[in-house]
Specification:
It is a single chain. The chain is an all-alpha fold and 146 residues long. Helices cover 81% and strands 0% of the residues. The protein contains 6 helices and no strands. The radius of gyration is 17 Å and the shape is globular.
């Protein structure tokens, strides 16, 4: 993906976040944003697969890709603040969103079978809550609270 394509995608994503003014649940907003991003990438699967292989094979390109993603993540966090989330919550949401999308993307690139990238990315959102709940229960039991 060229530098200008990343800029265009970042602007599109931040615009999707800041478009509304009414209160919104974080999960609903992440579903819209991650799903929209997946829809844009879905038709380019083969090209993205080849691109990812080149990046994976070159440490310098991997570092460059991570730096690009970090800048995009900061832009997403800023858009979330504009939408009314606290700076801390915005940073967390952007980080979680990127982690989920990156995982879904790598799974999708490695596996030609269903589900789609959108389905993979958005299905992972409820899993975050399940994992957090499970970790909380485990901590309660370990501390003697449950």
């Amino acid at each position: 993906m060229t530098g200008s394509a990343w800029v265009t995608r970042a602007i599109s994503t931040t615009t999707a976040i800041t478009a509304g003014r009414e209160p919104v649940r974080a999960q609903d907003l992440m579903t819209v944003v991650l799903g929209g991003l997946a829809d844009v990438m879905e038709p380019a699967r083969q090209r993205l697969r080849q691109r990812q292989q080149v990046i994976d094979d070159d440490v310098a390109l991997t570092g460059r890709e991570l730096a690009k993603q970090a800048r995009w993540q900061m832009a997403i966090a800023e858009a979330l603040v504009t939408r009314g989330f606290t700076p801390h919550a915005s940073d967390l949401l952007a980080a979680v969103g990127f982690t989920l999308f990156r995982g879904a993307l790598h799974q999708w690139l490695a596996d030609d079978a269903a589900p789609t990238l959108r389905e993979r990315a958005t299905a992972s959102l409820p899993e975050v809550r399940l994992v957090l709940d499970e970790v909380s229960r485990t901590l309660e039991v370990a501390s003697g609270g449950g």
